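Summary for the lay section of the report: proteins are chains of building blocks that fold into shapes. Here we show the chain for II/X family phage/plasmid replication protein and then a coded description of the shape we predicted for it.
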Amino acid sequence: IEMAAQKPIDDLSDLIQKISTKAAVSSYQLWRDGHDPRQMLPKNTFYRHRRALLEHGIDISMPAPPRDETQSNVVPLCKTLELKPATMPHWVSGTEYLFEPRKLCAVG
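The coded shape description reads as follows.
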């Protein structure tokens, strides 16, 4: 199987104008998002939508080509935080905001 024949259309407005049924466009969106339309549609409907999309060079029976990672809308579940030590601001010295404990004298 060669995926070079697949021509994913990222601009849905072009696809909607070219394809007569909006349901086939919905099947294309499912396929493009990584779902298998075969599992979600009745058999006759799947093949009817496949036939409509094949006229435009899109075969929804094959896995969709991977999307560009820069266009991903997936939000990462964990984010690495980098901690930096905090320093005391210079303006705090000598004000009531800074508590300076008394120095203890060594008795000896």
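Put simply, here is one thing we learned. Residues 3-65 form one domain.
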